Amino acid sequence: MFSAYTGTPFSVGSPSASLNAPGAGSQTADQVKTDVEKLGGIGPGQHYYDPTAFTPVREARFGNSGRNILRGPGLVNCDLSLFRSFNFTEKYRLEFRAEAFNFTNTPKFGSPNSDSNSPNFMVITSASGERQLRFGLRFAF
Fold first, then answer.
1. Are the CB atoms for 54 and 31 separated by under 8 Å?
2. pLDDT(21) > 80
3. Is the CB of residue 87 less than 8 Å from the CB of residue 69?
4. Which of 80, 61, 70, 85 is closest to 40 using CA atoms?
5. Does the pTM exceed 0.85?
6. C-alpha to C-alpha distance for 63 and 42, rounded to whole angstroms
């Protein structure tokens, strides 16, 4: 089974302390560049999006960037399974099963850090999705 998905949308945040409005929701950052360049870097010190396109809000107002305007990295996954039956008699059958989840061992990267005040702003620091193998025998009678 092959699957491919686009990345999860996320908002660029800013500290909400400048609003002084408890319960007002999360604060978005100010977008200072018209186009946000996708740099595509993954790992420590490498930016996925241009961090200079946003600045934190430092006064009592909401930021001008929209909600969920950027997307994290996409995901590609391939699962594979193989089944083989061996008939001994009309009554007895043995089935061998081999399954591989994330067969290509492709990492699934998380969204970049979206806190405009963080030193890791627009840096991807998380990954998941290790390969898993499963084998089994099924005896039917």
1. yes
2. no
3. no
4. 70
5. no
6. 27
